[in-house]
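Example 3.2
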Amino acid sequence: MEEKIYDVIVIGAGPAGISSAIYAKRAGKDVLILEKFFVGGQLGLIGEIENYAGFGKISGSELADKFYSHAKSLEIPIRLEEVVDYNLTDEIKEVKCKNNLYKARAIILALGSYSKELNIEGEKEFKGKGVSYCALCDGNFFKGKDVAVVGSGDSAFSDALYLSNVCNKVYILTKNTLKINNYSEKDLKERPNITLLKNSISKEIKGKDRVESLMYEKDNEINKLSIDGIFVAIGRRPETENLQGKIQLNERGYIITNDRMNTNIEGVFACGDVRVNVIKQIATAVGDGAIAGTEASKYVDKMKIKNR
């Protein structure tokens, strides 16, 4: 156990977490960031970004590196450790990792979210053997091959457009109605190797050692799609499993906050994709982080004055 008590511990090093840490550090606070995967969060899985003001066009990895460099220039420590439990109710909060226990006066939860699963037969069996949740990460493994993207939103369309540059054929299986904001079917028609299969429900993934086919239902009939890979893009789920019963969540597991990023527990704040908000974009995550870092700093100041 580390005996030191930090002013602020930020859980998550995505845009929201880095932003909150920068604001807290600039307010003179002793800050620690804990991240279980890599700095930048989901930015590392995004190709080109064209809607983040001031950059025009930039890759996700480049932007992640800029966030990291900014935190590093302020000498904010970032430790790659996974948080497994919390004690949030005491005045001094505790964050338990696999090998260490950290303490802080304020906690900022910038946990982000992760890909949902289809929960169909064969999905778990073929994870890493043709089933992927990141087109940017794994697309090149399917160069010249036939693949399917399952999903009805912007992420599915974005994945399909990206994969069409490296794969032979790309099928998009959409369930019910399309839910796209940044793309149109015209974008797909300009790519002759993309086929849109509307109102198609994925049923089973088959193969021997790797994915060989996807069984799906369309118009009350079961069809077989011979493919080499399946990319799942059906939305995201918040990283709040170990916060169940410890903090107020909505029915989907997202953390409930007010407009100052306060949770229902004093001294605990949440920002970015993990909290209930209207849209989930880099710009809104950074804005959330700015508020959370500022409010956490104010809270720490009040605590120190109170305990003099």
